[in-house]
Amino acid sequence: MLWVTVYDTIYAMVDREDDLTIGVRSTAILFGDSDRHVIAALQAMTLLALYLVGGIMHMGPWFYGGLVAGGLFFLRQLWLIRARDEAACFQAFLNNNYVGMSVFLGIAFNYLFAG
Predict the structure, then answer these.
(1) What is the DSSP letter of 23?
(2) CB burial of residue 1 (10 Å; 0-12, 13-18, 19+)
(3) Which of 31, 40, 62, 104 lies at a CB distance of 3.0 to 4.6 Å from 110, suitable for a disulfide?
């Protein structure tokens, strides 16, 4: 749910003005000027939750490497949304595919190459 809120808020930043005009309530509107800070906090909590689950599941370095890569993609998203430009926010939203791919590959490689 943390990560879903992240990418949904980034997507809502794309059409914030339209939402305000027609009265749609979104997390981008709810978070207001703190949207970028809330997104950063949610991204950190997402990575922390995955890290903790990885420990419970006894994951290895491949998994944690995938989390590091996902964290780098999260940093890229924060850079893209810094000015709240609609096109850049949409690009950041699409970038979440790479976060998911990184975590998935970390899990897959953990099971493929764990000794």
Answers:
(1) T
(2) exposed
(3) 62
Angle at 92 between CA 81 and CA 17, to 5 degrees: 60
Q: What is the DSSP letter of 33?
A: G
**Cα torsion angle, 99, 105, 108, 109, sign:** negative
Q: Are 88 and 80 in contact (CB under 8 A)?
A: yes
CATH of the domain at 79: 1.20.120
Summarised one tens digit per residue, pLDDT across range 54-92 is: 999 999 999 999 999 999 999 999 999 999 999 999 999
Domain carrying residue 49? 2-113
